[in-house]
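User: Predict the complex with FE2/S2 (inorganic) cluster.
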Amino acid sequence: MGRKLLLEHANVPGIETFEVYRRNGGYRSVEKALKTMSPQNVVEEVQASGLRGRGGAGFPTGMKWSFLAKPEGVPRYLLCNADESEPGTFKDRYLMEKIPHLLIEGMITSSYALGCNQSYIYIRGEYMWVLEIVEKAIAEAYANGFLGKNILGSGYDLDLAICPGGGAYICGEETALIESLEGKRGNPRIKPPFPAVKGLWGCPTVVNNVESIAAVVPIVNDGGAEYAKIGIGKSTGTKLISACGNLVKPGVYEIELGLSVEEFIYSDEWCGGIANGKKIKACVPGGSSVPILPANLITKTAEGTDRLMTYESLAEGGFASGSMLGSGGFIVFDEDQCIVRNTWNFARFYAHESCGQCSPCREGTGWMEKVLRRLEYGQGHMHDIDLLAEINKKIEGNTICPLGDAAAWPVAAAIRHFREEFEWHVTHPDEAVKRNFGIASSHMPLV
Amino acid sequence: MVKVIIDDIEVEVEPGTTILNAARMIGGDVVPPAMCYYSKLQGSGGKCRTCLVEVAAGSAADPRPMPKLVASCSTPVMDGMIVKNKTSERVYDNRAAVTEFLLINHPLDCPICDQAGECHLQDLGFEHGKEGTRYEEKRRTFDPIDIGDKIKLHMNRCILCYRCVYVANQLTDKRVHGVMHRGDHAEISTYIEQAIDNDFSGNVIDVCPVGALTDKTFRFKSRVWFLKPMEASCECTKCAGKAVVWMFGDEIYRVTGRKDRYGEIEDIDGKTAWICNECRFDKKDKSMWNIAGPRVINRHSVISQNQYLVDERIESKKLTGK
Ligand SMILES: Cc1cc2nc3c(=O)[nH]c(=O)nc-3n(C[C@H](O)[C@H](O)[C@H](O)COP(=O)(O)O)c2cc1C
Ligand code: SF4
Ligand code: SF4
Ligand code: FES
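Assistant: Here is the predicted structure with FE2/S2 (inorganic) cluster placed in the model:
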């Protein structure tokens, strides 16, 4: 059983209330930071912890914080990215729903570290009920003197507000989030300038994922060095994984980074294997934006070493035979699932969610979606498969924000690993319509 | 001043200058095409991706190449930067791809489009397009709508460059013109087809690189290359009254701002010479204008293929005042 730093108390009855949370050791990090540490000390602990952003890109949080510009007389802002809209990712929701005070505690400690007096949580519009839970918790924190003026008599003031998005995935991109928070259309900004220099209302801003901010709590409580002991290499600490698909026990798990993928999928402690006694066909280990892995590359790398749940191990082999840890949205497909249909489904999502600012993403995502739909419904041609590969090569790297790449990679990977299945859809149009999923003629070795 | 080399030509520019503007200082075919950037509109650029260039060396201090192509309109130069535009295969290739993307949903109805002849997408297609299309799907279509009684919006042709949005934000007072929806279903819209009720709203027509926004007082009257562009001015209380009148015989068919070779309204006396709606839509009588003489059209366009190509003489006359 791995250590739980975030979800340890998640199932304590009443943990969503201030009282129970406090009784279980809650808000200790705020007391410790405000009373015994300077903001710089907190930043140093986070740097020592090796914590990497949990929103998808895995950028070291301590380093991001150290980049924050600190001009005199200009406010700074900490924004919590709770827009979680990536297909397959639902860990932040779980955390906020179950143990909302952990996020608020993390926000207070982190805001103190960064010298912010006004912070915001930007929450996905579809999470309205979660917003209510968090709002209630914020009110409790105010009532108990953990938010507002002169927190715990330390002289530090902090206001925290929560703001819902309007239902756009793109508003999870940090600069689109800032635009949206300012009341504008959520189009990503052209960078540079980066938010650390010019963010919300032109002021220096840090945007962090819910889980990254929550992880600051155990880091401050136990020290960054203690946190860094968990995990392997540059993948330190614990990570929330939202596992879904054809698993015996899908759900949100907190794992120690470094757990083997095999154990995570098959052991009864975690996902319990593939449902209904089926075999695994593919896995998308880090949310819909990361490359799909075929059965033979999930638990082992191309070199034959064990694949681990770390940023490095999942990426081993690059785009040819690896993937990414991403946001921890772990999607498993059994032998009956159709890769073409799934790829089309992802493409449909990106075509719908592209903000439409830059031509390659706006036109390319729509184009790929249409071609994939034709393929799935038995109206494709062989040349469509190469066309798809061409289109995604021309989107990748040519856009303003990473959504373009995120839309291109899954298609590229699906074609790379499951080309035969795409071809089968072209050669067996009638069967493809009946959704025989191409498994019958797929030569992919199943584990 | 910083030094930058673009396509093997060195130029010295102010720090903070973008690659595109540095290239414009050199001029000629070193200049990348720009469909969305408009130097007179703050915040424009970065969207169309036609201006992508390769940075072979980031700066003298850090001469590593940049891994991705960058949008030259929104990337500032660094001292010692080496940029490749027309000398890069990769740039040509990706620009061709951007052109293809811009064209897949474009109606290609140039024969009946008023912008033909002065359309930047047409130029781009000419230089970077391929014969035929790989697009087998249905094109996105919209019904044309009126934005007030003088402007027509043909959304089918829009490339979502956002220039008109910046005009509406920066030149007009009430913000009623913007983009609705996302992705390839995004569209330019005014608040429930309202007129943009403002003296300068007509400038959206001048900034539109394609035939999405057109002048209803001119629509279908003539092909632009049959008209004679004349530099004209008038006494106007709302704008500087410096325009180009497009004539057929003695008749003024349309009035536009004075555009430079990049299709941008020129600065006159240090101010961008946007024209007001009255000058644009209502002054169609020769007697209302002081006509100075033929207008030099020096951008690459079919218009410059007509009789005004002898313009060097006129240019020098203008310069010397003789
Ligand atoms: C299209 C797009 C959507 C994103 N959505 C989210 C999201 O829902 N939640 C999130 O935390 N980060 C999201 N990100 C990543 C953020 O831009 C940003 O990197 C992250 O919030 C930084 O936090 P971290 O360093 O704590 O991971 C998204 C990025 C892109 C390009
Ligand atoms: S890549 Fe897509 S989502 Fe990102 S800015 Fe461009 S059009 Fe918008
Ligand atoms: S209508 Fe014209 S100016 Fe406006 S966004 Fe479309 S192409 Fe650009
Ligand atoms: S002109 Fe640079 S991206 Fe459009």
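Residues 89-104 of chain B form the longest helix (16 residues).
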